[in-house]
Amino acid sequence: MKSRLKTFALRIIKLYQHLPQSDEARIIGKQLLRSGTSVAANYRAACRARSGREFFSKLSIVTEEADETLFWLEILVEAEIMPENKLSSLMNESTEILKIIAVSRKNAQPK
Length: 111
Prior knowledge:
Helix 2 runs antiparallel to helix 3 (52-78) and helix 3 runs antiparallel to helix 4 (84-108). This protein has helices at 2-17, 23-47, 52-78, 84-108. The protein is elongated and about 45 Å long. The chain is mainly alpha-helical.
């Protein structure tokens, strides 16, 4: 999962580099860049958690960041900044990551 999320973060960086040079694309792009790379960074932190509660907390952050990343991708499409066909693969990956992490988080919930 670590390598999958790192690859996801790198794909987000590449997307950011290819966004149009408009103000709205830059603003949304920076939000996307922050949340998309945060998914991988916080998952790594979760893997180094010192307790079950800390692991759950970090997975909660990963879930939030993955959902936010999907939101910004949707905004790029719906605002017609980027065409859906260029983002569909990244949106699908974001959705899959969100589902995997959400289930992991649910299973890790402290009793």
